[in-house]
Amino acid sequence: MADCKQCENLNCLIKKHSLNNKILTVLENKHTIKCKKNQQFIMEGTPAHGLFFTYKGKIKVAKIGADEREQIVRFAKDGDIIGHRGGFGSSKYYSISAQALEDSTLCYFSKEDLKSILLNIPKLTFDFMLFYADELNESETRVRKLAQMSVKERVIDSLIYMDKKFGSKDGLFNVSLSRKEYAEYSGTTEEQVIRILSSLKKQNLITAKGRKLGIKNLDSLKKEISKHTLNS
């Protein structure tokens, strides 16, 4: 079982309060789930009984649109929460699906256990409130970008996001995504993503090695979308 007290994810809200005696029983009830690469562990529309924390791994979170196409809405890494809109709150069903991008380990807490610790640990409740506020702000910013940015700008914004979210090693992002997944996150088609990435490579702004991409000139890419990010 993933031990919260030994966990290195200092940004995890449960880890931050794991030494509080009031949380000990809930930690004992926690379930540890291991997911293989490409394994789906949340299906959109299924009953929501709790939420997940990423102990180790990378996750993509998606929704099915009106045209039955998948739209990736966010990504998660070590310490991030998944399923919080359905797994905790008034909703009885998950509004998203979640799939492991690599072999991952997840911590699962039931709604009942979460309600118990939130009622007994005010500081944790406050931290959750701040988390939801930040999530709302990010969601609103993303909706605005998808509505106002050109296709090229959305792809560039996605590249900058991957660099910020996962970091890089040897010039390449620490996450391996298909061109289709970049399209699903950017709100465009795979063909358009391939064409835009090819253009950016010719301009020496990005690099690629197989599925992996990396940024060679971050400042130049940021300038491409600066008019949309000044007030973000």
Account of the 3D structure:
By secondary structure, the protein is α+β, with helices and mostly antiparallel strands. The chain folds into 2 domains: 13-123, Jelly Rolls (Sandwich); 146-229, Orthogonal Bundle (Arc Repressor Mutant, subunit A). The chain is 43% helix and 23% strand. The chain has helices at 13-16, 24-29, 84-87, 111-120, 122-148, 151-166, 179-186, 190-202, 218-224, 226-229; strands at residues 31-35, 40-42, 50-56, 59-64, 70-76, 81-82, 97-100, 104-110, 168-169, 172-173, 206-209, 212-215. The strands form 4 sheets. A 4-stranded antiparallel beta sheet has the order 1-8-3-6. It has a 4-stranded antiparallel beta sheet with strand order 2-7-4-5. 28% of the residues are buried. The mean pLDDT is 91.
